[in-house]
Specification:
The protein is built from four helices and three strands. By secondary structure, the chain is α+β, with helices and mostly antiparallel strands. The protein has a three-stranded antiparallel beta sheet with strand order 1-2-3. The mean pLDDT is 88.
């Protein structure tokens, strides 16, 4: 993963933010929309692309484009920095490969203890029965 190439491939678009904001809301485009095309990226190799597509499939468009919005702040520059930071964290966390779980064997003592308790409960239930003549 080449971060500098990925950063250069990011596409930003500034639009007017929704919601209340006073007189400035109709004039200032402070909301930032980040889009990143995973399939056309040169900063990722093929295995990384497949991993990202599998892990982020619910957040991708049909053309494998990741879109993030940032409208937390009133400043366009701060929103751009925030959405870029969030994007990089998302990519890093998605590229982490979990190690495979190793199935463990049940210890013999546990099995023996379970059988012993079954035997004792069976004996107590036998003793509860009325005697046969």
């Amino acid at each position: 993963m080449d971060l500098e190439k990925i950063k250069s491939e990011l596409c930003f678009k500034a639009v007017r933010s929704s919601g209340a904001g006073g007189q400035n809301v109709n004039k200032v485009s402070s909301k930032v929309i980040l889009s990143f095309d995973i399939s056309k990226s040169h900063g990722l190799n093929n295995s990384e692309k497949e991993l990202l597509i599998n892990k982020l499939k619910s957040r991708l468009t049909s053309e494998f484009v990741l879109i993030l919005n940032g409208d937390e702040d009133r400043s366009q520059l701060k929103n751009k920095k925030l959405v870029t930071k969030r994007f990089l964290e998302m990519i890093r966390s998605a590229l982490v490969v979990q190690k495979q779980r190793k199935a463990t064997k049940i210890p013999r003592s546990v099995i023996e203890k379970r059988i012993k308790t079954k035997r004792t409960t069976a004996i107590t239930k036998q003793l509860r029965k009325p005697p046969e003549f």
